[in-house]
Amino acid sequence: MTDGGSDxxxxxxxxxxxxxxxxxxxxxxxxxxxxATGVSRKDLAAxxxxxxxxxxxxxGSQAIRSQGDALAYAFTRLPATYxxxxxxxxxARQVCDLEPRSxxxxxxxxxxxxxxxxxxxxxxxxxxxxxxxxxxxxxxAALMAQSSRPVLRAASYHGSLAPAGAVPADLVVxxxxxxxxxxxxxxxxxxxxxxxxxxxxxxxxxGTPAGYGRIMRIRSLLIEAGAHVxxxxxxxxxxxxxxxxxCHFAQRLPRSRDHxxxxxxxxxxxxxxxxxxxxxxxxxxxxDARLLAPPRVTKGAIxxxxxxxxxxxxxxxxxxxxxxxxxxxxxxWGDGVSR
Length: 339
Known about the structure:
Blueprint: H1 26-35, H2 41-56, H3 67-95, E1 102-106, H4 112-120, E2 126-130, H5 134-145, H6 150-153, E3 156-158, H7 161-164, E4 169-175, H8 186-195, E5 197-206, H9 209-224, E6 228-231, E7 249-254, H10 257-263, E8 269-280, E9 289-291, E10 296-297, E11 301-308, E12 311-318, H11 323-329, E13 336-337
Parallel strand pairs: 1-2, 1-4, 2-3, 4-5
Antiparallel strand pairs: 5-8, 6-8, 7-8, 9-11, 9-13, 10-11, 11-12
């Protein structure tokens, strides 16, 4: 690691916390179903299609003008963004001694990242959510009111950063929100997030070249501000990937029948692709490498594309190598691994 921490060692990457599943918690899915009781699935599908068209045209959450619009969004996007948040929290727990008691969720939507954080961090006791869209706030508050977790039932929604951001939070999350900013506002946004962070900051964006570009810009700004990059990178050097390649990951999640109907989908699962950065105040426990693509398995070997402190590495392990082959066979895209 850089910035004076190259001698930091830990067994944490070799014995990571058990990975949390990407599926929505059953009580959250049940709460969504209750809120949608009596609501036409065709109406939700029409609203969701209009939202998708708006986002493809470069629009943002301004297309969500009512709780009905917010509910349509939740049926189509909440499961995927929850899965991405869980994947990122799994990565953060592998390399950070992170026990956040407070969460500040910026651009919280219906509270997706807060639900994921409540699953990931048992000590969480204070949740503040910032969301400018009234329909999203209304839906999020309704979902949290039905939770069995006291921390979610007591969560507070705010329409703007102040006063929610007046007191720094242990964990700050900005999930799928940076893309709605004007390019000139990105630097100030990143530095404001870092100023509000006591332990760790998580920023998640779509796994597109544009989303990756925003993450790389935010990453550079955070390093300049003194942050340690905890994940996904095993280093704080420049990204070793060159265009047209870009750093992104995928989380597979099942689709419920309602999810398929509202989204107009026929496949019972989807792969949510995302890019992210986790920055920490304390030096993280460094992993050896991050798997940047699904391993390629042939009859005689496994080939893996790895990001390492030394740069981009193509690692090939032959079947005859026994234990090393079995270890590599368990690797999945996005894993932090020991070589």
